[in-house]
Amino acid sequence: MKNGKSGGVLDRLDNQGATSFYWYLSLLATIGGFLFGYDTADIGSALPFIPYKLSSFAEGYLVAGASIGAAVGAIAAGPLTDRFGRKSLLIIDAAIFAVGAILSAFAVNVEMLLAARTLIGLAIGADSAIATAYICEFAPRDRRGSLSIIQQWMITVGILVSFLVAIIVLRAAPGAAGTVGWRLMLGLGAVPALIGLALRARMPESPRWLMLNGRYGDTRKALGILGMEVTDEEVKATAEQLKEEERRRENVSNWTPGVRRALIVVCVFFIFQQITGINIPFYYGPKLMAGLLQGPHSDAVNSAVAGVQVTAILGAVNVVATFFAFRYIDKLGRRPLALAAYAGMAVFILLAAAGVAFLAGVPQIVVVMIGFALFITCFAIGVGGTGWLIQGEVFPTAVRGRAAAIGASVDWVANFALIQVFPASQQAIGLAGVMVCFAGLSVLAIVFIARFLPETKGLSVEEVIGLFERQAAGKPGTG
Ligand code: BGC
């Protein structure tokens, strides 16, 4: 190994072939990603049909409460997962997701609904803090990118499925939208959560976390499930090396300059991931598009269905485009994908802005849709999944949970801030003006990535932190 000295069984783990079991495990780890997408997008479709009298606080909280809950859930998950492991937290999260969805479906008043949404938010945040960290701790180094991109893929599928469920529910029983319809949209999230709960109980704990916590017998068993036969002695020898590395770091402090640098890079990456506007088409899409599509005779259900249908097309583009991230993240690397993606996002959001500012009627809808679709495509290829991937791969095992959780929490705070700021900014400078700002921010993101994000493809997770340490010490990295 170049810089990471752990070697031994971890070296073998890093160089294993990714069997179908590895893909299955990544899928299980990212069921929370699916629910992250589903539960953040479903409220937009359900909101117009919630029959309770909603104060503006309650309405704002229903839409943005999941994001705030997620910021809190992420931060809480960090120390818990470093202390109790990745698997236990992933199981608890699945249970909270299920309870939150069931309570939403059977809510008898606004307060119960708000409480249920808070629970869902906590689970979204906690899961988003841990999922890719868990994957990065068992993934072979040359497949770590693709396996982690499954998180992003599941998020996009969750968003799309929430739109499809809304369309089916609203079309099948338009008259029941305000009674059973909205409850179904929110409650169906319980199904994947319960599946996750059942299956996550059987997944192996992270071998790196087990080793660091001295659980050698369990490490051997976990590695066995991952297809590696090792002896207790081999595990012990590698664990000693791993602990030695962590101890050396702890002599200074766990939060060495390299770890702090990595944390800042992840946090700033996440801030750009959000403030460049990706969630505007998803969260506000149904409303914005329903407005553009509303005819003189359309009723609430029809225009809501039309808005959701158009947004679902963008959701489908998002799912398909994520395939390219999955395909190329380990081949081309994190940096080139992210740089090219932000360049494309800047160009295409300007195209959509031009449509909003200078066109009307059908040509406006066409140009805005093309602009948004290509903007989302670029995001999906180089920005969305890249954020969640680097969050999982750049920290050392001893602090990975806490550091990754801080990153996730920053992502959610930025997400919340944008949802809050968007309506007022739209009023102040118009939708096109806001979109031009997104383009400017995408250009700033390019400058940031070019200067600060090192290339981490093909390195072991122990080598990655070495790279950040060297950069923090002012030595040239390989970035
Ligand atoms: C972001 C989410 C966003 C999604 C869209 C994720 O990477 O964190 O905020 O809704 O991508 O695909």
In N-to-C order, the SSE pattern is: HHHHHHHHHHHHHHHHHHHH
Indicate the overall shape: globular
Tally the beta strands: 0
Bound molecules: beta-D-glucopyranose
Helix content: over 70%
List keywords for this structure.
binds beta-D-glucopyranose; mainly alpha; 20 helices; 479 residues
List the SSEs and their pairings.
Layout: H1 8-14, H2 20-29, H3 31-46, H4 56-84, H5 86-105, H6 110-136, H7 144-172, H8 177-187, H9 190-200, H10 207-212, H11 216-225, H12 232-252, H13 257-275, H14 279-293, H15 300-328, H16 334-358, H17 361-382, H18 384-393, H19 397-452, H20 461-472
Helix pairs in contact: 2-7, 3-4, 3-6, 3-7, 3-8, 3-14, 4-5, 4-6, 4-19, 5-6, 5-8, 5-9, 6-7, 6-18, 6-19, 7-8, 7-15, 7-18, 11-12, 13-18, 13-19, 13-20, 14-15, 15-17, 16-17, 16-19, 18-19
The structure holds beta-D-glucopyranose.
Residues 152, 155-156, 273, 278-279, 282, 318, 384, 387, 411, 415 line the site of beta-D-glucopyranose.
Outline the structure in words.
The protein contains 20 helices and no strands. With 479 residues, the protein is mainly α. The chain is globular, with a radius of gyration of 22 Å. It binds beta-D-glucopyranose. The site of beta-D-glucopyranose has 12 residues, from helix 7, helix 14, helix 18 and helix 19.
In short:
The chain is mainly α and 479 residues long. The protein contains 20 helices and no strands. 80% of the residues lie in helices and 0% in strands.
